[in-house]
Specification:
Elements lengths: L1 H12 L3 H11 L4 H25 L5 H23 L3 H25 L14 H18 L3 H12 L4 H27 L6 H21 L5 H23 L4 H33 L5 H14 L1 H20 L1
Length: about 325
Amino acid sequence: LVGFGAQLIDGSLGMGYGVFSSSFLLLAGLSPALASASVHLAEIGTTLAAGTAHHRLGNTDWRLVARLGGPGAVGALIGATVLSHLPTSAATPVTASILLALGVYVSLRFALRPPAATTSHHSGHSARFIMPLGLIAGLVDATGGGGWGPVSTTTLLSAGKTAPRTVVGSVDTSQFIVSVAASLGFLIGLGGSGIPLVVVASLLVGGVLAAPIAAWLVSRLPGQVLGAAVGGLIILTNLNKVLDAVGAPGHVIAIALLAVIPVWGLLIVLAVRHWRQDRRRAAGPSGRHGTADAQKGTERGAVHETAALEAAPGVESTVATLV
């Protein structure tokens, strides 16, 4: 079920598989190291298939892949090694805090200010910008059990220098390198016998079953609304562990969780409002100013729908490759 839900989200947003699945694996009682190791091993197969499909569709800027994936692999290897040697009592609050921060960021980003778009299929960023981004994203991804997409994809889209489909295709392709490096770090640190292979296989099966539904869902749900909803869910699943780690009493945790719900609902409402405004702009007057507004609204509001739609063939390819 976790793999199924994670693939639905990832196939619709182009990000979120690791953050979502790790959050629920922690909730189910797995240690942070085992949860992250299971997710990254499962991602090796899905990212390989997705990256191959992106390359065939022309969605990949290989210079961006190299500049992002190389440092990302180094960061993932460091993060996996550190997490493998931390005791569960110390690692759980660290991992939950990272996931909680990512949930807040994703919710606010999608609800309040969806990124602008460009049509350039070659990255306009310098290595000075991309390489530190890859290092940080890889470190967060391995330590938190997810975060490669929320950190790197959202940052690159926010800059508006690369077309959404190229950003998603290049980030997905480079994630294969990061997943291999993280898995290697966990295998060295934990040993192959310590990783629950049934969890890895279950995540893969759930993802395969969800892939065709995600491809259908992406064309019907607005990306910013789904992003705000998923971000709130990630917050709820990790806030409990963070508060428990700092010694908060049970009634305080319950009040905090209840307080998050109306804020979560407000962010979803704001995301729906932005989406409707963008649709109205896109359907506005056909004059010069109306056309400009429509173009702006279309680019701003459809960044993640476009990116996810063009990433959907990668999801379908995952099904074919794994079967």
